[in-house]
Specification:
Elements lengths: L5 H35 L23 H13 L1
Protein name: DUF6059 family protein
Organism: Streptomyces kurssanovii
């Protein structure tokens, strides 16, 4: 019975600490990169920019389906 459990023991005692060490080294190595990438990230867009094909036209009324979807979306949010 103990002969079948040796792979589990190897993973728990040897490979898991090696994996955790590699993750920690990667976190230290990439710490500056992730902060810089977060600073360079563009601002969150809440709607498509002007001239975008998916932008709603104010002069065209919504269809019945679009109104129903808008109502459902507003109730959920």
């Amino acid at each position: 019975m103990a002969a079948r459990r040796w792979p589990v023991r190897v993973v728990r005692r040897c490979l898991r600490p090696v994996w955790q060490g590699l993750v920690a080294c990667g976190g230290v190595y990439l710490a500056g990169e992730s902060r810089r990438a977060a600073a360079e990230r563009p601002p969150l867009l809440l709607r498509p920019p002007a001239g975008h094909p998916e932008r709603l036209r104010p002069d065209v009324p919504l269809t019945a389906l679009e109104r129903a979807l808008m109502d459902e979306w507003q109730r959920a949010g």
